[in-house]
Design a protein that fits this description.
The chain is mainly alpha-helical. Helices cover about 65% and strands about 0% of the residues. The protein has helices spanning about 1-45, 60-80, 95-115, 135-160, and strands spanning about 125, 130-135. A hairpin with a 6-residue loop joins β1 and β2 (about 130-135). α1 packs antiparallel against α3 (about 95-115) and α2 packs parallel to α3. The longest helix has about 40 residues, at about 1-45. The protein starts with a helix and ends in an 11-residue tail after the last helix.
Length: about 170
């Protein structure tokens, strides 16, 4: 019996340690992602925030709003106990307001994940594309930011603005 208890404690400690490593690794990447995206948002002149390369594309501004809304939705839905309510962000009319909101949302998403003592990354949750683990939701959050950040790098280049050096190693 004693050996069983020791084994269970050992296994539980390893699970907790592995989850902490995953969250710590995510946070490091998340913070780098924030820095990199904010540099791009700062480098684009405000008069080009409504630029879009084709009619079917989002504007630079809309890309940034879309990124922060997705962060809010995923972290608010899957890493809090609150019912998610989409916020009206139509008041984000200036470059500075948008940059401040992006900073705030990156930090809020990180806090929702790191300050929630009940986060179980192996827990399956309902997602529109089928059941996902919370670990998969973390990966989706980062992947979504990366996807749209890649698009806005093109927007910078098309306007002859050198994108900032990569942040994230």
């Amino acid at each position: 019996m004693k050996k069983t208890i020791v084994l269970l404690v050992f296994l539980l400690a390893n699970i907790v340690s592995a989850q902490k490593l995953v969250i710590d690794t995510f946070v490091e990447k998340w913070d780098n992602s924030k820095t990199y995206l904010l540099k791009m948002a700062e480098d684009m002149p405000e008069e080009l925030y409504d630029y879009k390369p084709t009619e079917r594309e989002m504007t630079f501004r809309a890309q940034l709003v879309h990124i922060l809304e997705n962060m809010d939705w995923l972290s608010g839905t899957y890493f809090t106990n609150e019912k998610f309510q989409k916020k009206d962000r139509s008041n984000l009319t200036t470059k500075q307001q948008l940059i401040e909101e992006i900073q705030k949302m990156f930090d809020q998403a990180k806090n929702r994940i790191t300050l929630n003592p009940n986060v179980d990354l192996s827990q399956k949750v309902d997602f529109f594309a089928g059941p996902k683990t919370k670990l998969q939701i973390l990966n989706l959050m980062q992947d979504h930011v990366t996807h749209h950040r890649g698009q806005i790098i093109v927007y910078l280049n098309l306007n002859h603005i050198k994108p900032p050096a990569y942040v994230g190693w």
